[in-house]
Structures are given as C-alpha cells and as structure tokens.
Amino acid sequence: MKSIAALMLSASVLVGCTTTVTTSSTDAPNFSSAVEALNVYYRSVPVSELPAGPSFLPLDTGKALTRIIVGSCNDEEVPDPAMFSIAKEDADLFLFIGDNVYGDRDGRNYANADAELVELRESYSDLAAQPEFQAIASNMPVLATWDDHDYGMNDFGRDFMGKVLSERMFENFFGLEEEAGDHDGVYYSKMVGPEGQRTQIIMLDTRYFRSDLTPTDEYGKTGKERYIPSTDPDQDMLGDVQWAWLEDELKKPADLRLLVSSIQIIPDVHGWEAWSRLPQERERLYDLLAETEAEGVVFLSGDRHTSFLYKDADRGPYPFYEITASSLNAAFADDPVSPEVDSRQIGKGYTFENYGAIDIDWEAKTIGLSILSNEGEIVRDAAFSFDEIQAG
Length: 392
Hints:
Blueprint: H1 2-10, E1 13-15, E2 18-20, H2 28-44, E3 67-71, H3 81-87, E4 93-96, E5 105-106, E6 109-110, H4 118-129, H5 131-139, E7 142-144, H6 148-151, H7 163-174, H8 177-180, E8 188-192, E9 199-203, E10 214-215, E11 227-228, H9 240-250, E12 256-260, H10 279-291, E13 297-301, E14 308-312, E15 320-324, E16 354-361, E17 366-373, E18 378-385
Parallel strand pairs: 3-4, 4-7, 9-12, 12-13, 13-15
Antiparallel strand pairs: 1-2, 3-16, 5-6, 8-9, 10-11, 14-15, 16-17, 17-18
C-alpha cells in the first residue's frame, strides 16, 4: 500500500493552489481506483501511528463563556511569546483556528508532500513538545480547526490527495474524533452555557471541500496579489454535506454564535485567500444566515499574518462583525500598522505578533473584540451590544 501512496502523490504536479494530474480518458478509471486505494491505506493507519497531542482540559458546556481567546499561525519550530501570554489569561477557552503548525514546510522552505506526510507528523510532534502550547493546554480547554499549512499544502483545497490522512492526524492530535470523526472534514460545533447565555461555536472546514481559486492575472498587484474572484458557477467552499449541516446548526437556538472560518469572510480589498475569492459562496453564506434567521452571529478568522476588525453593516439582516487574529509568532512586517484598508474595516490592521479575545458581558449584554500584542497588551478593540446583532 505504501508504494501506491507514494506513486499517487508523486504523480501530482503541486504548483500554486491546484493539483494537476494529466490523464487520458482511458486512464481516468485507473487513476480513480488508485486514489481509492490510497485512501484505503490512509484509513488503515493505526491510531498508535498518528501524532498525539497533550492532555486537553474538558470544556464545561453548562457554564456560560465570558472570555474566549483566539489565535492562528503558529510556527512550531520557533518560540511563541504570544502563547505564553495566552497561557496566563483568565479565559474559559482557546480557539486555535488554523495554521496551528506549518506542516508543509521545514523552516522557511516548503516541503514536498510525501505519501506519509512526514513533515506534518514532525510538526505535530514539535507542537506537542512546545512549552508554550503545553502551558495553554494545562490552563484552559482548546478547540481547533485547520487552515492550509496544517491541512498539508499551501493554499490547497479539495484536490490535496493526502487529506484523508491529514484529517486523521488532526482529529487524533486535538482529540476531536467524537466531534468530527464520523464524517469527511473537520467541521463541528459546540453549544456552551445555560439558556439565556448560550454561545454556539461553529468550527467550519474551509479546506477539505473547497474548489480551486482563480489565479491572478497580475501577480503581486495590490488587491490581486494571488487570486481574483471566481466566476465559476460551480465554485464551492464547504461542500454539500457541510452546507446542509451548517443550515441545521444555524436553526438551533443560541444567544451568541461564533462562526469560525480559517480564512476571512468580510473583506474585499485584498487578493489573498478569502471568501471574497469565491463570491458566490460568500453570498450563499449571507443568504443562509438570513434564511435561517440566525441572530447573534460574529465571525472569527485568521490566516493573514495581520490582525483586523471589521463591521459589515449593509450586506446582512443585521451588522456582522469579524475579528481576524493572526499571527501568533509568524509576523513578517517591519511596521506594526498595516497599509491595507477595507471599506468595512474598523481602525488599522496590526501586523506584529498577536492574539485575539472575545469578552462577553451577559448582564450588560455587550460583546468586546480585542487584538492583543504578544505581551498581552490591547492594541485594537471594538465593542457592541447584543441588540445590534439581532435582526429587525
């Protein structure tokens, strides 16, 4: 089986954001059979051979959440001061929302995806041994979803052929077999708190089912850096099954809903990965929120190596807020103030290492969104009432 797996991944031309495999029509059935054989092998890998995470604290779903920490983009090979600051927080929960490891590269060099995903395995081992992450895991519960670098390949979607194995590795490491192990992809949800103080946490998977993005025709140009909006009528972000699941989740009663997407939802101004690159799918998301009459929705995202706050007051049944918290320890800019400005952006983006916080005051009925430096100091913030994120 391993020789089949190696053959299949080496047959892929891994360039940009697409997987291109050249086959004739007569070769296609053989290719499909080989892919299935690869997945049979991946599903047969014993649990004992999958990366294991630290012992995570259980989440008390009967207790109202008042402070939630969110972070993304953690390079497991270097120190992470932001994580040490998070570990000192008096918080109820840490949401680790993508690029939790850089399992598709060694240092700054991208690694080819071998059949056994060796680099990804090593990255998880490094994360498990990271004192900063151990400190978080011993201080508060952790919920996670993935982005491209812990999915297994930079900017990839549904065509990444190692995704069955990478999913098993992710779920085993974070102890999510019960939540997400019964279906393809790593999406799941949690309802936390008593009636009147219920927070629904919806963890989306924006990788496993996502169709190809459209490469830019002006590489590096501001607003078109890597991708332009797709015009493909069959574009897909979540896949049919996850979309149906999301609809059911949004119909459940909740007072606050944290909709977690590894990539940004609201902004339009840039040409990096985002829901704006699949505009038909973002419209579908907004329509679904309206159709299900799901109130109290706040978006959480990462990925950008810069933190942002947004308010979208004109495209939904009520204003949608978004906090982008990125990155924990993989910042690249020399100036802490981002030059990027979207029309729905609140204040300036913050480019240095950071994490985010969501503070919920159930008595005052207010929600606060904060970006904190890696030393735990607030550098950007916004606040709004529960009434503002209700329809009508």
